[in-house]
Amino acid sequence: MPELTPVHSTAQKLGAEALGTFWLVLGGCGTAIFAGEYVGFVGVALAFGLTVLTGAYAFGPVSGGHFNPAVSVGLAVARRFAWKELPGYVVAQLIGATIAGAVLLLIASGVSGFTTADGFATNGYGDHSPAGYNLTSVIVAEVLLTAFFLFVILGASAKRAAVGFSGLVIGLALTLIHLISIPISNTSVNPARSLGVAWFAGAEPLSQVWVFILAPLIGAAIAGFSYAFLLGDDD
């Protein structure tokens, strides 16, 4: 008998998205908060890449493994994902990221002298950029890198792509993106990742988080609109 493709319920898909986004924020931001001084930018970049890689194989078969509102928007614009599912995915991703941020705060508060004023893995520009990059630099980097992240995702998940390697390729792409942009903005390319920790870091990170919502969404939409024109339809 032919093997049947499993059909997952909406609740299962949203649960997988929440868990995957929780894992991304816990692993990536957690590494930055707890081990950043030991592993450096390279270690943090690898942590984000590894969370996406492992999450894609663990939860991707259920939900598609977006773990990022910008990815969901880009896939919807490219007609790889149903618009009607977008609101539920975004809410699930924000819930997963926020719970992860709360867990990180709980753990981090267990050491004497902890303060979120040290950054708490938040994104920022100007004085809140790791290397002091201004708003323009941060917007350009976030839009461009999110667009290329979507190009990689769309290409790696296309029917013509090598089967079974998409999670590895996407994880490596996110690692590269972090290697480029941690000094610029502390790397977002993911509104849920940014909001998940910004909620708990005080007024300044929250006042700048709009950039890390808007710029990734713009970059994702650009890639979604232009992918088929530039690289061909996914026949």
Automatic annotation (TrEMBL):
Keywords from the named record = Membrane, Transmembrane, Transmembrane helix, Transport
Q: State where the protein is found.
A: Membrane
What GO MF terms are annotated?
channel activity
A single Pfam family it belongs to is MIP
Membrane topology term reads:
Multi-pass membrane protein
Q: Which GO terms describe its cellular component?
A: membrane
The residues that cross the membrane are 14-35, 89-111, 131-154, 161-184, 209-230
* Entry keyword annotation includes Transmembrane helix: yes
Family that this chain belongs to = Belongs to the MIP/aquaporin (TC 1.A.8) family.
Protein name as it appears in the record: Aquaporin Z
The source organism is Aeromicrobium camelliae
Q: Upper lineage ranks?
A: Bacteria, Bacillati, Actinomycetota, Actinomycetes, Propionibacteriales
